[in-house]
Amino acid sequence: MGKVITVTMQKGGVGKTSFVTNLVGAIARTDKKKRMLIIDMDAQGNVGRSFGKPVGKYENGLDSLFLGTKHISECIYKLFGNVDILPVTPDMAFLELKLFIEMQKTKRPLSILEDEIGYIKDDYDLIFIDTPPTLNFIVGNALKVSDGVLIPFEPEPYGIDGLVRIIDVLHYFRTQLSIPVKILGVIGLRVNTFTTHNENMKKARQACVNSKIKMFDTSISRSVRYSDAVQKKDLPATLTKIRKKPKDPVIDYYELLEEMIKEGVL
Hints:
By secondary structure, the protein is of the alpha/beta class. It is built from ten helices and seven strands. 39% of the residues lie in helices and 13% in strands. It has a seven-stranded mixed sheet with strand order 3-4-2-5-1-6-7, sandwiched between helices.
């Protein structure tokens, strides 16, 4: 049965989608037999864009599932190799408004995804959910169905605030909504050697220690490699040619993957 991992952070612009697609790329390149599914919850559809497949490419998507017009198996498409995608369509932008009306008919509003994912969970080893940078009804569904949560953050001042906020939010889900959200770990993204970043990484590690949350030793360096790969190759950087000398920053993802496997996260 597939392990469901939600990647979430309330602050936008931290590189969350890049993290998901590059991590999946690293896993796929390391183990070609592993079956994976990426569920895109962001109306921008950047998971598909990372593979040259913009919003509008797919007829059905997450909005169809939530509105009950299609079953989950009708919303899944092959992305590459052994990796599939449950995408968004242009109608995703109006989903919240439509759901406001439809939710009156739903007795278990936070279990819509959970009810559907049971039909396909055995088809995959890993299911990653890329969430928008908000806490809404849709993200609640992702947290409800998750076996664990990964929290990426950028070591900027507002990034630390976002990290503390999302930890508080997940605590609320556990204590007030009785949803046993398990935090698998925190990952620093777009990290450079600036003094400010070093200081903020220390603050983040201390915040994780205080909350008894793991922060991975491996962080992802800031680099144009990730945006260039998508723009020029229509692929995440971890699926493009990787140089050994000088060290390609993409190697960070393979080192993070090794750490995650060692820690039993994946």
